[in-house]
């Protein structure tokens, strides 16, 4: 694996290998000393051109727990804010000795451009690009789902036969796109639920079902429900739904809707949450919620990705 840009680049075996490695990484995090010496001497640069809390911190924690040095590079206050191009920023980071670049950008395709334009030679990790993909988020979601739905020993297993319902702002969600690709690759059945105005053109060609009624989707039986944040900051001009109250009435995972789920069903959310809008607060805090587990899984999964990209190079040198 040279880069980690898109779930579409992975085979089922590749995806399961990352998840199995993440399980091994998670096992080390219960030890009194959680750091591994694997990436001693390497430098990981977090190039974040878009605001983030969970993703940036978990990538930083992942790299440090593998004993890598970390440079956090924010667009705000940098030369990027003065108009410097992505190419010149990348060349600067390469000249400073970066061994891998984790990039988050508001522009779809930015990570792919960095990886394949020939500007830099380092491995590139996509930490979210525009409305395109967020592959490590999908990986940590699958990691969490597999732990709950694949039995006591999930190693080597996918999510065959499981049904996952993803609800909300599909149109602007890079998380939804990556999850559809990954969960179906792992054998799950995926149903997307959203108002028609928040379903991307061409979603009918995705390997999933698209419906517009949340109660109908839940009535069909589900193993997991993933709620998505409504990204109002991307809804320039508005008009995607009549009112927030109407959206909540039709698409919020309320207490009554959650009560109708099967006993084993779990609830996920990639965060940040708008409590009371897309998910009721008591549902987010309920025993069936695994939202905090998702955050914890992010460190293990990102350790696994960095390990697979950099460990062999480190050992060779």
Automatic annotation (TrEMBL):
<feature type="binding site">
    <location>
        <position position="82"/>
    </location>
    <ligand>
        <name>L-aspartate</name>
    </ligand>
</feature>
<comment type="subunit">
    <text>Heterododecamer (2C3:3R2) of six catalytic PyrB chains organized as two trimers (C3), and six regulatory PyrI chains organized as three dimers (R2).</text>
</comment>
<keyword id="KW-0665">Pyrimidine biosynthesis</keyword>
<comment type="function">
    <text>Catalyzes the condensation of carbamoyl phosphate and aspartate to form carbamoyl aspartate and inorganic phosphate, the committed step in the de novo pyrimidine nucleotide biosynthesis pathway.</text>
</comment>
<feature type="binding site">
    <location>
        <position position="229"/>
    </location>
    <ligand>
        <name>L-aspartate</name>
    </ligand>
</feature>
<dbReference type="InterPro" id="IPR006132">
    <property type="entry name" value="Asp/Orn_carbamoyltranf_P-bd"/>
</dbReference>
<dbReference type="InterPro" id="IPR002082">
    <property type="entry name" value="Asp_carbamoyltransf"/>
</dbReference>
<feature type="binding site">
    <location>
        <position position="54"/>
    </location>
    <ligand>
        <name>carbamoyl phosphate</name>
    </ligand>
</feature>
<dbReference type="InterPro" id="IPR036901">
    <property type="entry name" value="Asp/Orn_carbamoylTrfase_sf"/>
</dbReference>
<feature type="binding site">
    <location>
        <position position="137"/>
    </location>
    <ligand>
        <name>carbamoyl phosphate</name>
    </ligand>
</feature>
<dbReference type="Pfam" id="PF02729">
    <property type="entry name" value="OTCace_N"/>
</dbReference>
<comment type="similarity">
    <text>Belongs to the aspartate/ornithine carbamoyltransferase superfamily. ATCase family.</text>
</comment>
<feature type="binding site">
    <location>
        <position position="104"/>
    </location>
    <ligand>
        <name>carbamoyl phosphate</name>
    </ligand>
</feature>
<comment type="pathway">
    <text>Pyrimidine metabolism; UMP biosynthesis via de novo pathway; (S)-dihydroorotate from bicarbonate: step 2/3.</text>
</comment>
<dbReference type="GO" id="GO:0004070">
    <property type="term" value="F:aspartate carbamoyltransferase activity"/>
</dbReference>
<feature type="binding site">
    <location>
        <position position="174"/>
    </location>
    <ligand>
        <name>L-aspartate</name>
    </ligand>
</feature>
<feature type="domain" description="Aspartate/ornithine carbamoyltransferase Asp/Orn-binding">
    <location>
        <begin position="161"/>
        <end position="308"/>
    </location>
</feature>
<feature type="domain" description="Aspartate/ornithine carbamoyltransferase carbamoyl-P binding">
    <location>
        <begin position="2"/>
        <end position="146"/>
    </location>
</feature>
<feature type="binding site">
    <location>
        <position position="271"/>
    </location>
    <ligand>
        <name>carbamoyl phosphate</name>
    </ligand>
</feature>
<protein>
    <recommendedName>
        <fullName>Aspartate carbamoyltransferase</fullName>
        <ecNumber>2.1.3.2</ecNumber>
    </recommendedName>
</protein>
<dbReference type="Pfam" id="PF00185">
    <property type="entry name" value="OTCace"/>
</dbReference>
<feature type="binding site">
    <location>
        <position position="55"/>
    </location>
    <ligand>
        <name>carbamoyl phosphate</name>
    </ligand>
</feature>
<feature type="binding site">
    <location>
        <position position="272"/>
    </location>
    <ligand>
        <name>carbamoyl phosphate</name>
    </ligand>
</feature>
<dbReference type="InterPro" id="IPR006130">
    <property type="entry name" value="Asp/Orn_carbamoylTrfase"/>
</dbReference>
<dbReference type="InterPro" id="IPR006131">
    <property type="entry name" value="Asp_carbamoyltransf_Asp/Orn-bd"/>
</dbReference>
<keyword id="KW-0808">Transferase</keyword>
<feature type="binding site">
    <location>
        <position position="134"/>
    </location>
    <ligand>
        <name>carbamoyl phosphate</name>
    </ligand>
</feature>
């Amino acid at each position: 694996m040279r880069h980690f840009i898109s779930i579409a680049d992975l085979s089922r075996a590749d995806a399961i290998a990352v998840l199995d490695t993440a399980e091994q990484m998670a096992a080390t995090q219960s030890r009194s000393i959680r750091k591994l010496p694997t990436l001693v001497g390497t430098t990981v640069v977090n190039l974040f051109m878009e605001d983030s809390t969970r993703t940036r911190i978990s990538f930083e924690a992942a790299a440090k727990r593998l004993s890598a040095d970390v440079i956090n590079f924010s667009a705000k206050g940098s030369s990027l804010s003065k108009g410097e191009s992505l190419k010149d920023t990348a060349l600067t980071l390469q000249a400073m000795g970066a061994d891998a670049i984790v990039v988050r950008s508001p522009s779809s395709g930015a990570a792919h451009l960095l990886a394949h334009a020939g500007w830099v030679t380092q491995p590139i990790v996509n930490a979210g690009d525009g409305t395109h993909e967020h592959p490590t988020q999908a990986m940590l979601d699958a990691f969490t789902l597999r732990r709950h739905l694949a039995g006591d020993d999930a190693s080597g297993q996918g999510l065959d036969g499981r049904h996952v319902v993803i609800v909300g702002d599909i149109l602007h969600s890079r998380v939804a796109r990556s999850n559809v690709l990954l969960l179906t690759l792992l054998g799950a059945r995926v149903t997307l639920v959203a108002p028609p105005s928040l379903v991307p053109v061409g979603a009918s060609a995705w390997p999933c079902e698209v419906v517009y009624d949340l109660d109908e989707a839940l009535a069909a039986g589900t193993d997991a429900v993933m709620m998505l944040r409504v990204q109002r900051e991307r809804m320039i001009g508005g008009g995607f739904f009549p009112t927030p109250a109407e959206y909540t009435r039709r698409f919020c995972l309320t207490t009554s809707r959650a009560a109708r789920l099967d006993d084993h069903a779990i609830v996920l959310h990639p965060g940040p949450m708008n409590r009371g809008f897309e998910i009721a607060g008591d549902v987010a805090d309920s025993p069936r919620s695994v939202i905090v587990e998702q955050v914890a899984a992010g460190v293990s999964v990102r350790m696994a990705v960095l390990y697979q990209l950099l460990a062999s190079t480190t050992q060779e040198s």
